[in-house]
Design brief:
Layout (H helix, E strand, L loop, with lengths): L2 E4 L5 E3 L34 E3 L1
Antiparallel strand pairs: 1-2, 1-3
């Protein structure tokens, strides 16, 4: 499982954990996270994330 970091605020999206508070189930691969998803900390879109 990979991790992706928001380059704006430092939030880490961990594929193993997902983002259950925003309907992204644990184990959801980054490629499968909808383009409409935004960083839960700062609201940045997926393009603001880099692979950790």
């Amino acid at each position: 499982m990979e991790k992706y970091v928001c380059t704006i605020c430092g939030y880490v999206y961990d594929e193993a954990e997902g983002d259950p508070d925003n309907n992204i189930a644990p184990g959801t691969k980054w490629a499968d996270v909808p383009e409409s998803w935004v960083c839960p900390m700062c609201g940045a879109d997926k393009s603001a994330f880099d692979k950790d």
